[in-house]
Amino acid sequence: MALNIIQDTTLTFEQKVVALARHAENSLNVLNISKEVQDLRDKGIICDLFEGNAPYRPRYILPDYEKFMKEGCKFLELAPPTNIWEATHALLIFYKHVPSITTMPVYIGNLDTLLEPFVKDEDEARLAIKLFLTHIDRTITDSFCHANIGPYATKAGQIILEVERELENATPNITLKYSEVTPKAFAIEGIKTALKTAKPSFANDKMFTQDLGNYGIASCYNGLPVGGGAHTLVRMNLVKLAHTAKSVEDFFEVKLPQAMAAMAEYIEERIRFLVEESTFFETHFLVKEQFIRKDNFTSMFGLVGLAECVNHLLGATAKEERFGHSKEADALGLRIIETMHGFIETHPSPNCKATNEKLLLHAQVGIGDDINTSPGCRIPIGEEPELWKHLVQSAAFHKYFPSGIGDIFPFEVTAMQNPEAILNIIEGAFEEGMRYISIYSSECDVIRITGYLVKKSEIEKLDRGEATLQDTVVLGQGQVRNGKVLERMIRV
Fold first, then answer.
1. Quick one: pLDDT at residue 470?
2. Which pLDDT tens digit goes with each residue over 54-72?
3. What is the reported pTM?
4. Cα–Cα nearest to 67, from 228, 273, 208
């Protein structure tokens, strides 16, 4: 295995280093895993999404970058910045030292508000921000890296949107927090950029704030507390679980309760090792200088494949019988999610102080190896209904997922001529209760795979056996092959 990594011609040197480190970590067995949990892991019903056998850092970390910009950092010997060049350089240095499951930062802050105080000369700021974003794309070579902007309009935010349209980079991913305080003109600039480069996505700021308080969007679309994060994310493959059930009643009365209990047990064991044995929270400078706090973390109880689970349980083959098209199927889907939500509401998780000692439900976006398994609660690609029906159907699920759920809608390139119409769609979706929505155009090179971004041209390079800079291209290649992401319905 290690030699295969070393000899892999499609991996860069940095990607080989990370892969070898993961290989070494997975040679350890430090977690207390019961037979029941291991059996579900072996069947692919429970999956820790490549976190490794020895959790030595939280999966997702959202530092308090505002604190850093005001106070600097003793460990990194950085004083508070005083101009746009110092600000961008300070952030780039800080990012280098923010760990995560990917080894790179999955959250790089609300960039517009971080940089706005230093925008004095707009031409100079544009150059600095352009170089800053280019540096991020070339050095944080993983598009789970996520920046936020909004909800207020700023000069820095406007520059970021304009520069991203020009650069067409896959990294960083960007979310625009949208609320009643967001000027429509600023939102329309965001839509123009999204139709060019698949970002920003739009977050229902009111909904996230009500659920999480001071939050950031990290990784794919994960809402988490700023100054904290998530210890772990473990997911349940609902369609694989459904195939073990003899009936709908057996699924609800036996299989699902057993699987939820086992997955919660596994999550708690991963948290326990990280908090009690890894020494991360005792030694890392982010904790010592209070850029993150141990009591501001939670953990994520993920799920994938709801649509296929429902269709299997109902034996639904005709389109009108299936999830997204049938009232019976949609009702069964809601029953499953409500059951899972009810479980985590009653399951105590003492180390999840940020969320009242409860886990958070998460609609996981899938992995490259998933076949016939739709992300989270999404309607399968190829079975999408017309847009308004799709939005209403999806919105019913979003309130259950404070740590992340979202839907993706590619538009015909002509939509660029009428971004106001797309803003009306986004506003209507949020009024229906949607939490998060992503768009791009049919002509984009940068596309949204499931939650992260990849260039189609980079996937083509990988198909030719060439190495690619971003390691997420490999994941995107798997989703193109197995998840049919290039076959999404194009909206007009």
1. 85
2. 999 999 999 999 999 999 9
3. 0.96
4. 228
